[in-house]
Specification:
With about 60 residues, this protein is mainly alpha-helical. The protein has 2 helices and 2 strands, in the order αβαβ. It has a domain of about 40 residues. It is about 50% helix and about 5% strand. It has a two-stranded parallel ribbon with strand order 1-2.
C-alpha cells in the first residue's frame, strides 16, 4: 500500500467515523506525520505551545486530533 492509497483510505473513513463525534463550533487541526510519536513529540509540543500563546485552548476553542 503506497502513501496515496493510505490517505485515500483514511479520507474515505473520515466522514463516517470521526465527524459525528466532533463539535462543529470549533476549528479542527489534524496532525499527520511520517515520524514516530517519540521523534515528533518536540515539534508537537512546540506547536501546541504556539497555539496557547495565541489563546487557543484544546477542548475549549480548538480541537486537535
Amino acid at each position: 500500500m503506497n502513501r496515496r492509497d493510505l490517505i485515500a483510505f483514511f479520507a474515505a473513513l473520515w466522514p463516517s467515523a470521526a465527524r459525528p463525534a466532533l463539535s462543529r463550533n470549533r476549528p479542527l487541526i489534524a496532525w499527520f506525520s511520517g515520524q514516530s510519536q517519540e521523534s515528533a513529540t518536540p515539534g508537537v509540543a512546540a506547536f501546541r505551545e504556539g497555539l496557547r500563546e495565541l489563546d487557543y485552548t484544546e477542548g475549549q476553542n480548538i480541537e486537535i486530533i
